[in-house]
Amino acid sequence: MPEQISKKLGFIGAGQMAEALARGFIDKGVVKADTVHCTDPVPARREVFERFGAKSENSNVDVAKNSEVIFLAVKPQYVATVLKEIKQHLTDQHIVVSIAAGIPLAAMKDSAGDDKRLVRVMPNTPCLVGETASAMCLGGKANDADGDIVKTLFNAVGTIFKVDEKLLSAVTGLSGSGPAYVFVMIEALADGGVRAGLPRDIAQQLAAQTVLGSAKMVLDTGKHPGALKDMVTSPAGTTIAGVHELERCGARAAFINAVLAATTRADELSKL
C-alpha cells in the first residue's frame, strides 16, 4: 500500500487530468476523499468530484484556504491570474503544484511571490488510466520534503522523476508527447494486420496488447530493450525480416527525431 498523505489537497481546475489524479490518489489510498477540494467554472465538473466524495468550493480562494497542497490544473494562460488571485492566502505551509505545460518556475514565482513553495510537474495522458509517466522540478522555497510528498502522490498513479527544470522540455518531448507516437504506432501495426488479412477489431486489440506487454517486459525485467528484441529475433526468421524493414525505412531515426522536434517546440513555447 502507498504511504498515506495527511495533507489536504486542492484542485483549481477540475478537468479530466485533475479528475484522473484525484480519483487515482483516492483509489490508491494515498488521501481520503473528504480531504480533497476542488473548484471549476463549469458546475458539471465540480459535480464529478462531488460524486467520488471530494468537496466542491465556490472559488479559487476557498480552495486555497481549505487545502495545503494546491494543484493548478488550469490552462497555461490562466496560471498567473490564479496565482495572483490566491497569493495573499498562501502560507508557508502551502505547496503549489502546477501541471500546466510551458509555464516555468520563474513565471510562477513572479506571480506567487519569492517565498512560496512551488513545484512544476509534467504528467502525461496515461494519467487517465493510472499509468502516468511524469517528471517534476522544485522552485521557490520548496524543499526535498515537499518533493517527497509530490513523489508519493504521483507514484500512486504511475511514476515520477525529479529533474532539473532545464530538462522538462525533453520530458515533454519524450513522455509528454510520447503517447501520441505510441498511438500512431499501434494504429500502424493494426493497419499492417488488416493489410495481412486480420479483421480490424482483432488487429487493433493484438497491436495494443503487444505494446502493453512489451512495455511491461521492459519495466519488469530491467533488461535493455535491445536485449529483449534479440530474444525475439531468431536467425533468418520472421521477426528479423520485419526489423530489417523498420531499419530500412528509418523507423528508429523517426522516433528520435520526433522526440527532438517536440523538445525544441517545448523550449520555444516556454519562452513566449
From TrEMBL:
UniProt keyword Cytoplasm, yes or no: yes
Reactions catalysed: L-proline + NADP(+) = (S)-1-pyrroline-5-carboxylate + NADPH + 2 H(+); L-proline + NAD(+) = (S)-1-pyrroline-5-carboxylate + NADH + 2 H(+)
Annotated Pfam families: F420_oxidored, P5CR_dimer
Residue ranges constituting the Pyrroline-5-carboxylate reductase catalytic N-terminal domain according to the UniProt record: 8-102
Main location: cytoplasm
Claim: DNA-binding is one of the keywords in the record: no
EC number(s) from the headed UniProt entry: 1.5.1.2
Subcellular location: Cytoplasm
Keywords (A to Z) from UniProt: Amino-acid biosynthesis, Cytoplasm, NADP, Oxidoreductase, Proline biosynthesis
Domain Pyrroline-5-carboxylate reductase dimerisation: 165-269
Binding site for NADPH: 60
Binding site for NADP(+): 12-17, 73-76
HAMAP family: P5C_reductase (MF_01925)
The protein's name in its UniProt record: Pyrroline-5-carboxylate reductase
The organism of origin for this protein: Apatococcus lobatus
